[in-house]
Amino acid sequence: METLRIRVNERSLCGGAVRGRRVLGALALAAAALLMTPLPSVAATASAQLQSFVDKVRSATGQFQQDRAGDGGGAQRSQSGTFAFQRPGKFRWQVTKPYVQLIVSDGRHVYQYDPDLDQVTERNASQAVGASPAALLFGSGSLSDAFTLQDQPDRDGLQWLRATPKDAGAGFSHVDIGFSAGLPVRLELLDAFGQTTRIVLSQMKTDPTIAADQFQFTVPKGAALVKMGK
Length: 230
Hints:
Helix content: 10-25%
Number of helices: 6
Number of strands: 13
Order of helices and strands: EHHHEEEEEEHHHEEEEEE
CATH class: Mainly Beta
Number of domains: 1
Strand order of the largest sheet: 12-2-3-4-5-6-7-13
Largest sheet: 8 strands, mixed
Radius of gyration: 16 Å
Strand content: 35-45%
CATH superfamily: Lipoprotein localisation LolA/LolB/LppX
Shape: globular
């Protein structure tokens, strides 16, 4: 199976290194979910393949490696770890190197735990995911409600589509998704500041049995809890 490569813009979503780490994790997770679609016809357009994935794949697990580049083109430290998702809206994105970070959604809330800060940020899942790439991957509704999907010319041996959020406040300009043999294998997300992140996903398992506690989160003793939004 081919790996998934994703480029994600960071600063517009984060506004800082610590927040950037959190947002990138969520976006990366979103990308991870794309890899688990049953194979449609290779003649299908990229947008049709994405819809097939959203309609048919209920869960997945795998590993990821994430590389970031700033608007000046300088590379930043790579991240790696594991992910899991289960529709609708449940996911787990765990960074293990070069630092530890955990992002978990139970379908109602998204928790971002940063052990270095000993802090947990809690957001309403609908607000945290909204019109983000996660909505493309973990949701079960109509993609056209939140995104304009447009097939792009083939390049790098892949079939491409561009998903542009209809919400101007989504925090990114668009995400391009490349497919090969019916599988999404690369995402490239661009924000208004021109920053990008690439995520490679591997060792994917489609529709495995995932323990329910993988999508549950308990605030560690002594950690500060910051609730965002309502």
